[in-house]
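Our collaborator T.R. sent over the components below with a one-line note: 'Predict the complex.' Nothing else. No constraints on interfaces, no templates requested, no preferences about which chain binds where. So this is a plain run: every listed entity goes in together, and whatever single assembly comes back becomes the starting point for the next discussion.
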Amino acid sequence: MLPSLGYGILVITLLVTVYSVAAAIYGETKKSAEMVESARRAMLLALPLITIASAILIYLLVNDRYDVEYVWSVTNRSMPMYLKITAWWGGQPGSLLFWSWLLSTFTSAVTLRKWDRDRELLPWVLVVTGVTLAFFISLNVFFENPFKLIPAGISVPLDGRGLNPLLRHPGMIIHPPAQYLGFVAFTIPFAFAIAALITGRTDDRWIRITRRWTLWAWLFLSLGLVLGMRWAYDVLGWGGYWGWDPVEIAALMPWLTGTAFLHSVMIQEKRGMLKHWNMILIILTFDLVIFGTFLTRSGVLSSVHAFAQSEIGPLFFLFITFTFITSIVLVFYRWVDLKSETEMKSMLSREALFLLNNLLFLSILVVSFWGVMFPLISELFTGSKVTVGPPFYERATGPLWGALMLLMGIAPLSAWGHSTIKTLGRSIWKPAVAALIAPIWALIAGITNWIALIGFTLVALVITVSVREFWRSAQARSKRSGENFFNELRKLIKRNRRRYGGYIIHISMVLMGIGIIGIELFQSDTQQHLGIGDQIELAGYTVQYDRLDQFRHEDGRFITRGEMSLSKDGKDLGTLAPRYDLYPDGQPMTIPAVRSTLVDDVYIILVNWEGITAESTPFKVYHNPLVKWVWIGGYVFIAGIIIAAWRDEEEERI
Amino acid sequence: MKKFNILILLVIALSLFSVGTVAAQGGTDEISDDEVNAIASQLFCPVCENTPLDVCETQACKQWRELIRLKLSEGSTEAEIKEYFVANYGARVLSEPPREGFSLLVYFVPPAIILAGLIILFRAFKQWQVDDEDETDASVTEASPISASETGDPKDDYLARFEEELRKRD
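Returned assembly:
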């Protein structure tokens, strides 16, 4: 009964959404205000409908209704309540429904809040979001029905298969939703961009309306990436946080174009330039979001055959092609209207450096996209499969990331409109000299790796330049007004949130850079078979194997846990307990034990797959220098975006 | 294809057999896990997607690591072992496509596109500068006033802020 109701509601939602799109188009072309209003109400109706369908699915999940295929495939009786709820997005049908629910929520928020103000653009925004929503709901209705019952004639299973063990982690509560929030929220600026193209409002109004949407979307997309990295580090047990896996790259690609977009819209707002380019960037971001959603869920990039076999693969491909071609045709249709209002004056002006930033982000995108697609292309044309692994991406994108760091150090010092070598040199020489402290200090500490030395110099440059921007402005204002420095600093940030939030984000990026330099260039590891009492020496640390426990947990897991004592220079640093969990369904999970400090992490895994015997247990110990800075950078980053995206009274007067 | 599969099975069976015999003699004991992993980490599991061989948990991969150990104990070099894996399981076991034939595209296409982007950007700059020679500085302060005036944001306020920004920079 309930599953049928859920499915019925999905079908009705699809009809309502399709009606809304048709009514909005009809109403706008025939100038019928009633029809447009009807379209809006239909779209507002979609949200409660999808919410009810989702609530039914969650009810089925938490009540162990194994007569429903999806419930059976992603939950089992031993899973805690929170994991049963998060199983909503634990498999393909459920996560597609989650996508639709988010999109419907955002669309309702947009149409409810500022309908009168944005009356000109909103009907077309409805059309774009409606088409996207209809696409996703139809995937649920026709191909991936989350309410599908197990075939008749088969008795209802007593227990479910359960969520993939890798997903049975508190990170499951926050990482996938953050990633999806980021993905879906980018639909809104895209919809406004298309609406601007259709209506001919090609000034920067659509950008101003969606400015904060874009920032929040970017916040969640970034948060999704950082949380994913953390999850990988804590759970996947290979000593790293980023493996250039297609799924990771799928999430990175819209972030790259989105970040480029965030920068280049500022040029359009300040100088009325690059209108075509901004349109293209948001179109790319949207289609990469769709592409990313598809990849993160299906993993079909592994082979051409997997793609062809997947029912929804070709549909995603068609949808991406359709939206991309339609959007680009619209850009060409409005090409003349989108002409710049002013022109570039100097190659060192702020806007010129922003363009260079865009080129760098797009270059990383090109490398990522080509690397991810190449195995498929190779298989298609030559029949032989190849792997494009981390070394390729690291070598190709490393210098590009470095160049971006350099730009973060220079661009804030250049002026809008015009800058010359002389003006730029005058403002940069002091921070540049100050930044040299970092490599000198690193040299004294014994670091001779030249990539690291360049990296640390760039980190120091960005931090010096950014902090100096805060200091100089607040100092000047404080001198003039006689007020407290920190009060002035607070006011300064409040007055130009995006700018100062941006500087904080720059600082956070290079803090992450410290961690990445540390782990990428200086990670060391060793794997050894140990008997009780044996020791491993690595990077000055001594790890001693003390005991091994094997027991069954009440939820059915069979746990093997080693206890190791860690010491350095004879000083005891505590106990670490790496473990290996074997789930009742035979799924294994390796859980590392980590001691983390600002200087380095000692990361130990029990290498169960090498076989544990009474005499010897295999352990792998990683020494990961500076990796904690990746997470610290992550926190600062979130703070920076929140400052930038926070409601700003001045900006509300769009 | 079928023949090829049988061949693979044969190779695995044979190699396992030899692992068994050599292990019994204790010949592979001197090869450490680190030495095996140094090579395994550069190879990708031939059956799982995108998993480096040194951290792959499947039985098949365990056997492949033992095979590396065996080959090392027999005196094979890193390059020879990699060649062996490529010959038996195809180029996909390498972490990067081989630098030959069709696979060269993976290395040349991105730099070509990036270079093209750089050239386009540079030419656009040059073009802008030529267009710009006759213009006065006034254009800077008149930047994008449409939105400001249309939306009720006082234009003077906008310009004042803009000029302040410029002053601060100079």
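Summary for T.R.: The radius of gyration of chain B is 31 Å.
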